[in-house]
Write a structure and sequence with these properties.
The protein is α+β, with helices and mostly antiparallel strands and 225 residues long. Helix content is 46%, strand content 23%. It contains 9 helices and 11 strands. The chain starts with a helix and ends with a helix.
Length: 225
């Protein structure tokens, strides 16, 4: 129980609550473990639970009619998902899949509803989280609408490098995975990465990309309209 409460205290949406209030929430929270590949929900599933990611990564994505995947977000520990239970909508409109083995805090719809009515400051924090998610989605849509593929690939590599602390080395990313994050075809991403390689912007290994020239990638990303 103490491990659960310690974790909930570190989650941003509960930062305005006292230790006692967080402990009370912890008593109503179920801690679950899921294996990589688990589908938490898919489109048209009922939104009966809210999830807070404690360990692992989760991807949110949609599928096109021709079978292409478009990754809307990759969530890291502390992220909230399953927000249909939060806003009162009954059905999900995305897939949520575990990329790694995950530990998740799970709340039922009724528990979420009661918490938001009882603790309006938590409702405001949830609103901030959802607003940030919407802002990032709008940025993705803007890139799709106005940027060519090389600019989008360059932006994605810079973003992933930032997520990894600016190490300059990205591991575990296949060309198909990058294509899914951009909503395009693997062959297109492979061709673009090979062009970057020939321009000495990156070095390509097996499921790894080493970024050699961040300023060069930034120029491609900014001048890709």
């Amino acid at each position: 129980m103490s491990n659960k409460v310690d974790y909930l205290e570190s989650v941003d949406v509960f930062r305005d609550l006292s230790a006692g209030e967080v402990e009370s929430i912890g008593h109503k929270t179920t801690l679950m473990t899921y294996q990589a590949g688990h589908l938490f929900y898919m489109p048209d599933d009922p939104g009966e639970a809210l999830f807070i990611l404690k360990q692992g990564r989760v991807q949110l994505y949609r599928m096109s009619a021709d079978g292409r995947k478009f990754v809307l977000a990759v969530l890291h520990p502390g992220a909230v998902f399953g927000h249909m239970a939060l806003v009162g909508q009954r059905l999900h409109n995305t897939f949520a899949e575990a990329l790694d083995d995950c530990v998740i805090c799970v709340w039922s719809r009724e528990e979420v509803r009661h918490l938001l009515m009882e603790k309006p400051q938590v409702a405001l924090r949830f609103l901030e989280v959802m607003s940030e998610r919407l802002f990032l989605a709008e940025e993705r849509l803007e890139e799709i609408a106005f940027k060519r593929i090389p600019a989008r690939v360059a932006s994605l590599l810079i973003h992933l490098d930032d997520e990894h602390g600016g190490s300059g080395r990205l591991t575990g990313y296949t060309h198909q995975y990058l294509a899914d994050m951009l909503g395009t075809y693997r062959e297109t991403v492979t061709q673009t990465l090979n062009e970057f390689k020939s321009e000495q912007l990156i070095r390509i290994g097996r499921k790894s990309i080493e970024i050699l020239d961040v300023p060069g990638l930034q120029i491609v990303a900014e001048l890709g309209a």
